[in-house]
Fold:
Amino acid sequence: MAQDLPAPLRDVVERLSRLPGMGPKSALRAALELLRWPRERAEDLGRSILDLRRNLCFCSRCAALSDTDPCPVCADPGRSGEQLMVVAEWDSLLAIEAGGFYKGRYLVLGGLLAPLDNVTRDQLEFGRLRARLAEGAVKELILALGATLEAEATATSVRDLAAQVAPDVAVTRLAQGIPLGAEVKYMDRETLKQSLVYRQKL
Structure:
């Protein structure tokens, strides 16, 4: 079907279909919708995508997406430097921040270990985590990685790293009120709050 499309449309469809959850048919529907938009609206979308790339960066402290470096959380003197919560992705950080009950700092790993998908420690922020632990300020490392098999493997690897670099740091995890197979970013506020309050020592 893609070969039958005009070249400019085929190019957009192929690029859109690389987005997570966007197959070729969905990509074609999205591209056709963009064609129905007035030219100015479509151009505004294009500029917004360019601005997204130009104006956002990864925080040098926690690896969260931000328009400043350091990000507002890392720059906030009211946040405790003794607690460091490790999350897989930035949207998990957003979910926890929305609750307003955590006042420590974060580190965004950038994913979870997944050997079958060739995601190794070298591709995640383990080096940044090692550096943060080596600073000596962290007293508790809180793992907020979810309850999937990949999350368990990642949690074990993080715990082992902490034992090597900062053996006196307490390693805890969100309480297992989070259902097996669920991800932190999809949890409701109360579940996240209870999971944090009743976190468990590893």
